[in-house]
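User: Can you predict the 3D structure for this chain?
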Amino acid sequence: MAKPNSSSKESFDPLRDSYRETVTEIPAVVESLERGRTALLVVDLQYLDAAPGYGVFAHLPKGQVPKEAPEFYYFDQLEQIVLPNVRRLQDTFRSNGLEVIHTRIQSLTKDGRDRGPQHKRLGLYAPPGSKEAEFLPEIAPQGDEIIINKTASGVFSSTNLSYVLRNLGITGLFVAGVYSNECVSTAIRDACDLGFYTTLIEDGCTTVTPELQKATIQTMKDRYARVMSTNEAIEEINQVVPT
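Assistant: Here is the predicted structure, written as structure tokens:
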């Protein structure tokens, strides 16, 4: 008799329960939301890294990305799933009086000399006033929503975001944006280390391949963040936040 193929089964995670009980599923995560101390953090949804024909994707024609292009997965996910979901989340946070905070890659100087070493090596360049520094119109900030400019992957390590959140009384973050496996996951790891209760919106973020997306969700889940869908997040917010 042939032995079962163990590779087809999900491996047992011996640490999952301890992380759920002490980090990701503790009552304080929901209590932060109940007290109005949870903010939505929208990461880097800007022309530099999320629009064909600009910045990282300057080699692509502006507008619709051809299906045969390697970048099609990323932009299809953005247009069909991520941007509509992020806007729904923003509207829900706004209607419940909760903070919506935006991060973007933008240098302090026109020539970008203040950029982090990695961004210089990668050629990531979004000076003030440039098209690359603009937010995508679908999810652009409204009113006096806070914008945090950064020149590195990690928003906490390269900006005063932690100081701003503490001043606002924020203890929890729902996180969405791009790229899941880079700036989004770095923000979540750092936020968790700094004591913030983090929730990753799995259909509110994406990256350049489905494999990287899946791996990121699996890595964040049951270690650094709760993982929820947009529908689940909106339902929780509407049920928990006092009207």
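The chain has one domain: 15-240. The longest strand covers residues 197-206.
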